[in-house]
Amino acid sequence: MAHRLFEGKEHASSYRKYRIAPSDHLIEHVIDFAGKQKGGPLELAVDVGCGSGQGTVQLAKHFASVVGTDISPAQIQEALEHAKEPNITYRQCVAEELPFADGSVDLITAMSAFHWFDRPRFLQEAHRVLKPHGCLALLNYTVEMDLSYPGCCLQSLNQVCKEFYAALHPYRSPHLGASSIELYREAYTSIPYANKEW
Ligand SMILES: C[S@@+](CC[C@H](N)C(=O)[O-])C[C@H]1O[C@@H](n2cnc3c(N)ncnc32)[C@H](O)[C@@H]1O
Predict the structure, then answer these.
(1) Mean pLDDT of all residues in the chain?
(2) Is the Cα dihedral 40, 94, 198, 61 positive or negative?
(3) Is domain 9-142+179-190 in CATH 3.40.50.2300, yes or no?
(4) Domain ranges for the chain
């Protein structure tokens, strides 16, 4: 069963407005890893569960072409309305059935999205479409982090966030289990690729 929690125009435009994009540092790290695996030019990246495209655009300068995919038509529409990079296209499709030929993709990213997928089916599908030396990057943040904001008391900020996450925890989707970091650790352990990095 798909988890469709990111639907509708209003949700998608709020999502785009407030969503924090992954850091350049993290993206550079992924590109560096993918480049070393491939040992040649990076042609095609697919950002699965791309939402409104904040992370997708960060891939554009590293690849000949980038495709963002998402189950939500509203998120895809939002991404398209702000699309500027000529080498990015967007497709509406599920993560578990990607519209790409076997062995055709250099990099697959899922940025804060993998946890929502049917994870075993997605991992199989990613394996099918990746080139032999392709790279799969599952990015996410966890709540075990320290936040900072200019002019803000860090202790209070972090305390407020801790309380906020604790208050929300009882409403967490059962699909995610109790802890995101454990979910990702389990996936990382289960992935049989020889070269992998946490
Ligand atoms: C938390 S958002 C992340 C969006 C974007 N990657 C980002 O970092 O801002 C998760 C996205 O995954 C999409 N999604 C959830 N389940 C999906 C599935 N089975 N197939 C494709 N997309 C899915 C949602 O529609 C949503 O846009």
Answers:
(1) 94
(2) positive
(3) no
(4) 9-142+179-190, 147-177
> Who lines ligand 1 at CB under 6 A?
2-3, 6, 19, 49-51, 54-55, 70-72, 75, 94-95, 111-113, 116-117
Over residues 109-121, mean pLDDT: 98
Token digits of residue 139 = 């990015």
Ligand 1, atom 15, residue with closest C-alpha: 116
pLDDT of residue 3: 87
Tens of pLDDT, residue by residue over 75-87, are 999 999 998 999 9
